[in-house]
Structures are given as structure tokens and as C-alpha cells.
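To whoever picks this up:

The nightly regression suite flagged UDP-N-acetylmuramoyl-tripeptide--D-alanyl-D-alanine ligase as changed. Nothing in the input moved, so I suspect the structure step. Input below, exactly as stored in the fixture:
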Amino acid sequence: MKPLTINEINQIVHGEFIEGPVNWQVSHAILYGLHRLKWSHTLIFSERNINWHNLKNFQPCAVVTDLPADQIVPIEGITFIKVNHVMESYWKFVQYYRSLFDIPVIAVTGTCGKTTIKEMIKHILRVDRIVQATDGNWNLPVWSFGYLQNIDESTQAAVFETAITHPGHLTRHCRYLEPTIGVFTNIGIDHLDTCGSLEGYIQAKAELVKGLRKNGTLILNGDDENIKKIALDEFKGRVVYYSVSSSSPFQATEIHYAEMGMTFVLNHQGRQYHAFVPGYGDHQVYNALGAISACYELGVGVETSIKRLSTFKNFTRHLELMSGLNDCTILDDTWNTNPTSLNSALQVLHSIGKGKKNVALLGDMMALGEFADEVHRQVAELIIETKLDVLITIGEKAREIGKEAIRLNFGGKVYMYDDSFEGVREMLEELLDQNTILLIKGSLYNPHFSNFAQGLRSNKN
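Regenerated output under the current build:
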């Protein structure tokens, strides 16, 4: 965070000094109750009574409060600033701090691919500029205030994932970050438990359109049917599309699987660029297109982005290929699971598993609410289409996939387990061999899946 003096803080929040020293600078800021107090020199916005004595461990710090003066406990080294409404003062501070930096800020949203596109953009830009970005996939609004504070005078660009679990989350992200560019990856079925329906989820994602800074730029997946449902009538900025199956300013053609990645031809402004992106699947080509499109808006040429992207390293557990039990091949995709990412994973398994025995071990998909059973049953159609040899389900909801596959006359073997992995390894020891590819697809909220995948790795990796 760019340091600010206590006098500057007081002017920003339109406050009144009540108590404490004023000759020091603030280096951190938190909303008490939402963020943890971890450092001295912290500005604390508090709507409630604080553990006053705990503040002694973090002096100097400053408390912005709207409590009556007689409820404030004077503490040595603690500055108190009285305001009329804490939350109004908090957002004044947020707005002021963001206004200090005239830099491009990219917000990435969608059902799948947020982390990958964000990492690709960061990978491309960090060659020659200082970039702030989301840490891993810590991408909910609660962390956006911290990411905003990571921006300082040295920052030249920023790229953040903007995820949601509830309607209103993207609006909150944007209130902190004021993105100048918004990237949509895709919109599939997810968070139906809190958004109520697919339409509600689409509208929750569409909040990014209104949240962009005036005259901002939207970068959209032109092939995604649900993104097409987002109303753009009132959007006054630029709209840029990327695509595979339809014509767009950034269109990929001639897509092929290659060693450890995908090759494609990028068609842009009448020119063709031959490209390679590490990581398997058509979805990875879409990720590359989204990243290249965003970086182009920041002045990075297409050829330069393609060259830099060729050295990109995927996150672990994103269709991570490794040697496994009995010399089989494992596709570890235990980062997260929903119908969109599961479809992509099954397509990759089908493509690289030609001539081999294809096995999929699938877990429950989360955040589907009352639609959970129906959505899991729908997944069985994907199983039929990709012609698996063996389907293994683990979990009560995932069992619906297995039951529906059997009802649809799935030609392969089906094994269904409850929430335990008990007996699964023993079954796999009989099933797996060097001519087998095993896809393991589970949720990051169920660490048993990633632990199980790691336990199947061979020493060759």
C-alpha cells in the first residue's frame, strides 16, 4: 500500500480526531470483522466494539469509528477518528485509494478458466512490467480490498479474478477494483444454490458489465451461448470478441493436439499467426485467446504474446498429466468440478486416450442446490458421448451419474461408491495398466480427491 499520513486519512474520510498520535503513516487498512488485524500501522474501519486491549499489540494504528465518544477507550499509540457513518467513510477511502493509480486493471470472470487466463495474462505482462494479480484462486470479494492495497506507485498493470458465490459479489469486486477491462471466459451451470437458476447466475456474472470504469473494454467469448444473453445495450465502452467457431477479431482455427499442449492458427486483422499453448483441450485455446486479446488492449502485440505464452506453466491439478499406478497415465483435474469443466476434461480424455482404455473417476459437483440430482443425471449423456470404458463415481450426488449412465445403456463398466475411497485403490490395482488413462475429477472443497490422485502417482514423475 502507498503510505498515507494520518492527516491525509482524516481528510479522506471527513473525520474528526478524538484521541492519539497523528505524526505517523498508515501502511495497511482493514474492515474490522471482515479482515484480520495482522500488522502495526494499520487503518481500522470498525462498525462495532473492538477488542480494545488487543490493539496494544499493533500500535501505532488508527481506528475510524462512529461510536459515541464515551464508548471509546483511550489506548496509548492508538489514533481514533470519529466519523458519522463508518461504511460511508470506508468506501470513500476505497474510492480515493483506487483513484491514485491510473493503470489498466483487468477483471476476469466466468465459470471456468478464470485462474488460467489470469495467470496467462500475468505471465505475458510480467516480462516487461510490474503487475499485481490475484494470489492463486483466492478470488472472492473479501480479498479484493487487500489486492487493491497491493497496488502502489510501482504498479504498471493489474489482473484479478473476480469470482462469485452470490449475486452482488461482482458489483462488490468492481467497487474495490474499478476494472478498466473485463474478460468473460464462459458461463455454464454453477452456483444455482445461491443464484436460484441459470438465468440468475448469468445476471450475477453480468454485474461486471456495469462495474467497469466508464469507456472500459469488454472482452467476450463469442462462441458462448450464455454470454450472448448478457444485455449490452447500455454499455458505452468497446466490445472485443474472441472465438473458435465464429468469426471474430481473435479467431483460432486449425486446432490440434500436440506434445504437452495445443497448436492453432490465430487469425487477427488479416494475418495468421501460428501458436502453441501448453495444456490440453479446446478450452485451453479459448483461454489463450482471452489472454492474448486482453494483453493486446495493453499494447502487447499478438506475435509477442504468442511467443511468451509458449513458456506458460499450468497450475497443478488442472488436467495435470502424470505417470501412475501400474504405469497408467493419470489426468489429475481435482482443482474444481462443474458441468462445464467436466465436459472439457472428458473431451481431453477422449482425445488423448484414443487406442487406450479410458477411465473416469468422478466426484460430486457442488453448489447446485435443488438442481443437484438433475444436473448430475445430465452429465451421464456426456459419459455416453465420450465412450468411456469405465465410469467410477464417488459420492451421493455423483452416484446419480452412474445410475443414469446405466439407464442410458452405457456400454462400459460402472462402479459406484459412497463418500469414502475405501476399496477404490484395490479396485484400481486390478483395473489399471500401462494402456489406461485415468481421469480424476473432483472438487477442491473435497481434498480427499487431490490426496487420492497424489497417492496414485508413480515415482517416475
